[in-house]
Amino acid sequence: MELQELIGIVKESGVAGAGGAGFPTYAKLDKRAEAIILNCAECEPLLKVHRQLLEKHAYEIMETFQFIGEVLEAKRRIIGVKEAYKATVNALKGNLPSFQELELKLLPEIYPVGDEVVLIYEALGFIIPPGGIPIEKGVAVFNVETVYNIYKALHFGKPVTSKYLTIAGEVTKPVTVHAPIGMEVREVLKAAGEITVKNPVFIMGGPMTGSLVTSYAVVTKTTNAILVLDGDHRLVKRMQSDISIDMKRAMSICCQCEMCTDLCPRNLLGHPISPHMFMRMATSGVTKDLSPFLDTFYCCSCGVCELYACPQDLSPRRLITQYKNGLRSKGLAPDKNVQSKEPLSAREYRRIPMDRLTARLGLAEYNKEAPLCETRLTPPQVKIMLSQHIGAKAVPLVKKGDQVEDGSLLAKAQEGKLSLPVHASITGEVTEAGQDYIIIQNSNERMQAL
Ligand code: SF4
Ligand code: SF4
């Protein structure tokens, strides 16, 4: 297959990175990639999706990854998987003789090894420069579910209409489910038994980078998890704190101990981000040296500084993110010519073990099995967002009253922009179609209601 044909299939199928910011995958299919990496690092505590999918569908995913490597003519095709995922590693090893050109790279159980810059350093031994992107150094990274979605597009012509996600925390039956895109959190949670607290709060995504949502929030192409916690849980209180209070607390009690910088994964790789310097300058109001502010561009928002490192419970990440967004809104971009240092020799001793992180977050009691259930859930309706990823949102093609089939095109990608189409995730009637989302009522549910 020619590269342009693969790009066309992947784009038309609406494949975006199944996690993180959801970068449209067709834009990563680039022959500058001399090395491609399959990311099975499952970065955050409690999440299970990628390891489970790779264990269950090892052959299909390896075959597709191998195929992508052939089309891109990538010299190295590396599967990065945590050594701790024994069942997944065994499934991969069992299939490896069929894929001689694939390499297996066993990764340490540290956070955030799934971050692309950290992953590339662990797998290939070199550093992506500050502000740079992997393809500029000849690397492309794809996560497991993304490659599985490409497999379904190539073999069955199926667009992306569903998402695997782990439900964990205060539920009686933690589970990894297969949910149609657009399904509401409150409906998805029914698959995990009962909620075990009176005042539940929902985090969409992992505990380090996820965000608080209501039970009416909907699954998107990047939703990897729904965590249910008690409203009084420390992590919830941190997420609910007011950023203006965060700044006042920082002004009062940041003791400049530098723990945030000592443990910052990007600083340890030599990138010019020093959260303690940012905190010093931001809280003192001294602006003689602007570099601590401009260096906020090199923060990857991993959350180590505020959820693991800081002994004062301060929030460097939130404050840094606020500054970074402010700089972006003024049209500023990171300086790509800034020099990176060598990784710190102390890095080896300062990497963060996942079990320590899980305990520090107060989540150790929730670190249980969450078995993969592949039966697709059937919601009464779905609300499908037209912007689920980085880039321009899709343009609606349907109107209220239209009948749509599971997999039919609802909205097209914007021409000439980084954009993806959106497809129906259930069969039914369109009951609302706007510029931001489309609601579909499940036809089976309608029949029952009638
Ligand atoms: S770890 Fe906390 S107290 Fe120490 S310098 Fe960083 S923000 Fe300040
Ligand atoms: S969130 Fe904190 S620890 Fe993570 S990269 Fe940014 S400054 Fe460093």
UniProtKB/TrEMBL annotation:
<dbReference type="InterPro" id="IPR011538">
    <property type="entry name" value="Nuo51_FMN-bd"/>
</dbReference>
<feature type="domain" description="4Fe-4S ferredoxin-type">
    <location>
        <begin position="290"/>
        <end position="320"/>
    </location>
</feature>
<dbReference type="InterPro" id="IPR026902">
    <property type="entry name" value="RnfC_N"/>
</dbReference>
<keyword id="KW-0249">Electron transport</keyword>
<keyword id="KW-0408">Iron</keyword>
<keyword id="KW-0411">Iron-sulfur</keyword>
<dbReference type="InterPro" id="IPR010208">
    <property type="entry name" value="Ion_transpt_RnfC/RsxC"/>
</dbReference>
<dbReference type="InterPro" id="IPR017896">
    <property type="entry name" value="4Fe4S_Fe-S-bd"/>
</dbReference>
<dbReference type="InterPro" id="IPR017054">
    <property type="entry name" value="PduS"/>
</dbReference>
<dbReference type="InterPro" id="IPR017900">
    <property type="entry name" value="4Fe4S_Fe_S_CS"/>
</dbReference>
<dbReference type="GO" id="GO:0016020">
    <property type="term" value="C:membrane"/>
</dbReference>
<keyword id="KW-0004">4Fe-4S</keyword>
<dbReference type="GO" id="GO:0009055">
    <property type="term" value="F:electron transfer activity"/>
</dbReference>
<keyword id="KW-0479">Metal-binding</keyword>
<keyword id="KW-0813">Transport</keyword>
<dbReference type="GO" id="GO:0046872">
    <property type="term" value="F:metal ion binding"/>
</dbReference>
<dbReference type="Pfam" id="PF01512">
    <property type="entry name" value="Complex1_51K"/>
</dbReference>
<dbReference type="InterPro" id="IPR037225">
    <property type="entry name" value="Nuo51_FMN-bd_sf"/>
</dbReference>
<dbReference type="GO" id="GO:0051539">
    <property type="term" value="F:4 iron, 4 sulfur cluster binding"/>
</dbReference>
<keyword id="KW-0677">Repeat</keyword>
<protein>
    <submittedName>
        <fullName>Na+-translocating ferredoxin:NAD+ oxidoreductase RNF, RnfC subunit</fullName>
    </submittedName>
</protein>
<dbReference type="Pfam" id="PF13534">
    <property type="entry name" value="Fer4_17"/>
</dbReference>
<dbReference type="Pfam" id="PF13375">
    <property type="entry name" value="RnfC_N"/>
</dbReference>
